[in-house]
């Protein structure tokens, strides 16, 4: 699947088949995250790849009880390192996470960006250092649904030419 097709076909998946992801595919997805751009190439992130069934259940519970997440092969816990890049770590983590989300979609897997979680609980469950900040989580697995595209705002609400409000 080419890049634009991948972007256009990406959906938030909230139902997964109980199937594994081959190691080679997982490595490609993670490598896409590793290759993400970051401010001054500091790469201020660390991703915990949660695959143990009990660990997934605990992380899903800490994500405001979204237990469906635990059905995916993995849950990615994307963390920022403020001590590495105090100003940009959240943006850099988001870029790395989006690279992984798109790589997963291009290989036929599903994800769902999760921002609703109890950071301290996730940190404890994953054994994260105190200096780490959980920025996002996402299940990663074989989709068991193929949801349609959701409505998007009109171009004029999102883009302007030269000055705010001028049509492109």
Output the keywords.
168 residues; alpha+beta; NADH Oxidase; 6 helices; 5 strands; 35% helix
Topology of helices and strands:
Blueprint: H1 3-9, E1 16-17, H2 23-34, E2 45-50, H3 53-62, E3 74-80, H4 89-106, E4 110-111, H5 119-126, E5 133-143, H6 155-158
Antiparallel strand pairs: 1-5, 2-3, 3-5, 4-5
Helix pairs in contact: 1-4, 2-4, 3-5
CATH C-level category: Alpha Beta
Provide the gyration radius in Å.
17 Å
And the CATH topology? NADH Oxidase
Oligomer: single chain
Helical segment tally? 6
Report the β-strand fraction as a percent range: 15-25%
User: What would you call the shape?
Assistant: globular
Instruction: Report mean pLDDT, rounded to a whole number.
Output: 97
Low-confidence stretches: none
| Through-space gap between termini | 29 Å
- Give the helix/strand class: alpha+beta
* SSE series: HEHEHEHEHEH
Number of domains: 1
CATH H level, superfamily name: NADH Oxidase
Give a written overview of the molecule.
The structure is a single chain. The protein has one domain: NADH Oxidase (3-Layer(aba) Sandwich), CATH 3.40.109. The chain has six helices and five strands. Helix 1 crosses helix 4, helix 2 packs antiparallel against helix 4 and helix 3 packs antiparallel against helix 5. Strands 1, 2, 3, 4 and 5 form a five-stranded antiparallel sheet that branches. With 168 residues, the chain is an alpha+beta fold. The longest helix has 18 residues.
